[in-house]
Prior knowledge:
Layout: E1 3-9, E2 12-19, E3 22-27, H1 36-39, H2 42-51, E4 63-67, E5 73-77, E6 82-85, H3 92-105
Parallel strand pairs: 3-4
Antiparallel strand pairs: 1-2, 2-3, 4-5, 5-6
Amino acid sequence: MEKTLTLELHNAEIEVIGMEDEVHMLDLDNSGRKSLTNALSNIFCMKVLDLIGANPEDYTAIKFIAYGSDGMVCLYDPVQNSFAKHDGNVFLPFADVMKERKAFFD
């Protein structure tokens, strides 16, 4: 399922990489767009899976890792519609962007 795309979805603009059982989503932080954090929902996640060529019905078995415009990396649970701190693996190019963003807010 490894595929990288830039998507405009639900008025959010994100870069997505799908890897086996994880989907990494980077908020491109474009002015005038909805933030990734505000756009996330189970429907959003299902559409992302469909667009990257994965089965949308598998959304309950996938880890959705959101890299926000505030420099925070969170794990999104589309079933519970909740966020948790993510301490697991990160996609290094997205993690580098998070370091820059976090430094801006510190």
